[in-house]
Amino acid sequence: MGNVLVINECHLQKTPDGKYWSNGIADYELLSRYLDVFDEVLVAVRVVKVEVKSRDYTSLCSGKHIKILPLPDFYGSFDFLRNRRKINRMIRKYCGLADCAVIKAPSSMSFQFLKYIRGKMPYAIEVTGDPWMWMAPGEYRSLFRPFIRIVWTSQLKIYCMKANGVLYVTKHGLQKRYPCRAMTEGKSETYFTSSCSDVSIGNQRMYDPKMYENKSCFRLIHVANAINTYSKGHKEAINIVKKLNMQGLDVRIDFIGDGNLRKEFEQYAARRNISQKVHFAGRKNSREDIFKAFREADLFLFPTHSEGLPRVVIESMSVGTPCVSTDVGGIPELIGSDCLAAPGDVRKMYEIVRRLLMDHKRLTRLGEECMEKAEEYRESVLRGRRNAFYQRVERLCRTEAGYQAAGNRKNDKSRDDEQI
């Protein structure tokens, strides 16, 4: 069945025993999804060698039929530019090892690989987010932000039109801005598309609906593994908790995650005189701990500015914890409009949360509806759809049409090849 090259954006630590570890959601279970269709998975990812792994690197990524292809462990645009030549040499080498590729985009590494993959092998793109929204003003602090926003958006549109297959994590949201060739010219054996969440809730236990009757104090939760941008709405969440307490409601919030902006948000809560109701709990490194935190919360408050189809919303729903969020990306495919506000609309989101906390019966019904909706995202449901897409990519490795299509793309002299 051949092998497949995939790109992962996380940072791994390699221990002396040859094992690779992550501090996020990437683990062997996630990477081995491709083994349902392919014999081997080649994972290109940033790696640093360590004598002893950090305490929060608890997820084992290496294992049978998973081959890690290490890249320099760079952080940020300046670090990438310093390592660019070395990275590109390694990318060219790794592309020569693969029969085909499935690339998650957008990301800095995905676009670098796509530059070299085009014309050399059949490939598909998994579209997981919208760079136009990710890099909007105020979302990301970098001198390169305006440039990255324009280039990444342009590149994602171009590569979606040129890829053999495009798998969207949303049913409708991302397809509007980033259509693919199969959508504009019709599906064929060579060009195809589908939609399937890259998030699944596995087979963890089912819970009874939550009961909120006679509850007088409430615990909200906000989850963002990496607290490195303003796009997840931490400040908005703090302001909402402040307003709720000013109106006489006893509400606290736990922020799950960590990163270089954590201290800034803690200081912001202090300036707003609400620190006693705001708790930064750090990362939860196991899925069991994350599900437990969601289950113990009364409401998931997620004022995010940009998403594809967020894992955390589905995880919250699966344990019966209602979510109030924004109408971006694929979130409206998960949550009703009565629990959504526009990004940055603190007043409306505050009103939604306040009404819910005062209506215990409505909260209970919402929890039941959430668990019912989350059933659509069980791994047993999504696996068949995802595998059908990968099988179409794999078939191209064995057909002349797949490589003819790659050759046609190789001869395309469009100027987008140089815009990375």
Largest sheet: 9 strands, mixed
Shape: globular
Radius of gyration: 22 Å
Mean pLDDT across all amino acids: 90
Number of strands: 15
Going by helix content, strand content and strand pairing, the class is: alpha/beta
Strand fraction: 15-25%
**Low-pLDDT residue intervals, each spanning 5 or more residues:** 408-420
Task: Draw up the topology in text.
Elements: E1 3-14, E2 20-22, H1 28-31, E3 40-49, E4 59-60, E5 66-71, H2 76-82, H3 84-95, E6 100-105, H4 108-117, E7 123-127, H5 131-134, H6 145-162, E8 165-168, H7 173-177, H8 181-185, E9 192-195, E10 217-226, H9 234-246, E11 250-258, H10 262-271, E12 278-282, H11 287-296, E13 299-302, H12 311-318, E14 323-326, E15 340-341, H13 346-357, H14 360-374, H15 379-397, H16 400-410
Parallel strand pairs: 1-3, 1-6, 3-5, 6-7, 7-8, 8-9, 10-11, 10-13, 11-12, 13-14, 14-15
Antiparallel strand pairs: 1-2, 2-4
Helix pairs in contact: 3-4, 9-13, 12-14
Protein described:
The two termini are 32 Å apart. It is globular and about 65 Å long. α3 (84-95) packs across α4 (108-117), α9 (234-246) packs across α13 (346-357) and α12 (311-318) packs across α14. It is an alpha/beta fold and 420 residues long. α9 (234-246) links the parallel β10 and β11 (250-258). The strands form two sheets. Strands 1, 2, 3, 4, 5, 6, 7, 8 and 9 form a nine-stranded mixed beta sheet that branches. A six-stranded parallel beta sheet has the order 12-11-10-13-14-15, sandwiched between helices. It has helices spanning 28-31, 76-82, 84-95, 108-117, 131-134, 145-162, 173-177, 181-185, 234-246, 262-271, 287-296, 311-318, 346-357, 360-374, 379-397, 400-410; strands at residues 3-14, 20-22, 40-49, 59-60, 66-71, 100-105, 123-127, 165-168, 192-195, 217-226, 250-258, 278-282, 299-302, 323-326, 340-341. The model is unreliable at 408-420 (pLDDT under 50).
